[in-house]
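User: I'm writing a tutorial on reading structure tokens. Could you give me a worked example: one chain, its sequence, then its tokens, then a sentence or two explaining what the tokens reveal?
Assistant: Sure. Here is the example chain.
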Amino acid sequence: QVQLVESGGGLVQAGGSLRLSCAASGLTFSTYAMGWFRQAPGKELELVAAINRSGSRTYYLDSVKGRFTISRDSAKNTVALQMNSLKPEDTAVYYCAAERQSNDYIIPVTQAYDYWGQGTQVTVSS
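And here are its predicted structure tokens:
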């Protein structure tokens, strides 16, 4: 049974930082790309950042480039999202997701992902 468990969300003031973590189990971690999605109230789900199965390629939403960093630890089967210089518009529920990969190219679409976590709330106050 595949499980993705997020942690690290919370309330932070604008300009602050948070680090989200996702622990994966029940899958062969090295064969999965990992992504962080978010959904704000009334808005569509969007891919914030992704990292391929080997960690050699990353993807970032334009609005988070230079502020967010995604990383993975294959020894611990975890993926992290370091979020700096947070803005009120970053407020959303953040989801960890896993995509079974046959190559190292990142497909930045929701439908490519096979497994999802339960989500963690990130609230940035102004």
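What the tokens reveal: The chain has a mean pLDDT of 96. DSSP finds no helices and eleven strands in the chain.
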